Amino acid sequence: MNLRERLRTLSTSHGGRRLRLPAVIAVIGAVGAVGAGVAFGAKPSMVDLVTGPITVNAKPLAGFDRITRDKAKFGKLTWRGGLVLTSPSEYFGGWSGLVLDPDGKGFFSISDAGAWMDGKLTYDAKGAPSAMTDVRMGAIQSKAGDPLSRKRDSDAEGLTLAEGTTQNGRAFISFERKHRITRYDIKDGELSPARGKVSLPKSSRDMPANGGFEAIAVLRGGANEGKLVAFSERMRDDEGRYVGWIWMGKERPRKFFMTNDGDYDITDAAALLDGSLLVLERRFRFSEGVSMRLRHIKAAQLRPGKVIDADILVAADGAREIDNMEGLATHVAPNGDTIITMISDDNYNHTLQRTLLLQFSIAPGDLAAMQGGSKADGH
């Protein structure tokens, strides 16, 4: 679910309290996304998108904190750098899923308007992301090879590699509205027509139309190596906890649950090499604007039926350089640090929102030492 749809379903209001400046800015942007119409904010149809190169301009962010630009430590993460991405292409925007190659250079992304994008991420001498090069876009296709023309068919939200790389491999893409998880091949950086669908759990029929399979990941390492995990963005159990599923080989997918202190929504997930999982969350409230949070599920916690109280690695609000953060990817640096990359969905509201690419690192020791669950302070 994108931000404009989240606004329509908000049950929490500001109750007459005065909004802080970052919240005011965020609310204006969100409301602009709601009422954008044709002038701005309308998703383009990908029916006429011809696969080919596009230009992406990248402007480095001065820092993650809007005031203290040289601040580097945020929660358990260390800031590496970020970019504001723009393009003259009318199809650019709405990025909701992201994967990176093991070297952190090759990338592949999907948009909730039914497009894919691939290219190279370059870095400066200090290791900060500096540009996107060799970028191409194309339309996500049906099994027959046609672009996904209907909104209910083209709302792609989650992306994960099953094997291979962003140039040659196999991928899963999850969709909401018409809930499904579909298999694709990637050949020479281009996405194939749909190759088939993943068998879904019966319980997924209870997902809201605009709150379906927002996050998917294929686990890497540990006892669950190669297994698919998915989260619903807005489906909750009777205790208000997130609902997730893990595909257990030939058995039907089985549920597990994650605590949700703070009433966030899940927007993406990414697997780590030790079998653990990162989960990206977003929240919008009129009293505070947009917030995001990143949590860590340890490998041993990922079991059917388990209630997981995942640790918070970082939490951020409008005082930081965030937007509607929806895509999450990881790779490992030569020194062993895990590099975490996020991308935002601008809702095609180019006037009031931004496409941001943010990158952080965390040392292996900091990941291993985490404990305290969702009540720990991620700031």
Averaged pLDDT: 89
* Total of DSSP H or I helical runs spanning 4+ residues: 4
Q: Under the CATH scheme, which class?
A: Mainly Beta
Structural class: mainly beta
- The name of the CATH architecture is 5 Propeller
Q: State the helicity in percent bands.
A: under 10%
Which residues sit in consecutive blocks of at least 5 with pLDDT less than 50?
Answer: 7-40
What is the third-level CATH name, the topology? Tachylectin-2, Chain A
Total domain units: 1
Radius of gyration: 19 Å
N-to-C terminal Cα separation, in Å?
26 Å
Number of strands: 25
Elements, N to C (H/E): HHEEEEEEEEHEEEEEEEEEEEEEEEEEH
Could you say which overall geometry the principal axes of the C-alpha atoms support? Answer: globular
Q: Quaternary status of these chains?
A: single chain
How large a portion of the residues is in β-strands, by DSSP E?
35-45%
Described by strand count, sense and barrel closure, the largest sheet is: 6 strands, antiparallel
Short description:
The chain contains 4 helices and 25 strands. The chain has helices at residues 3-8, 21-34, 151-154, 364-369; strands spanning 52-53, 57-60, 73-74, 77-86, 95-100, 106-111, 115-123, 129-139, 156-164, 168-175, 180-187, 190-191, 196-197, 213-218, 228-236, 242-246, 254-258, 265-271, 277-285, 289-297, 307-308, 311-316, 325-332, 338-344, 355-362.
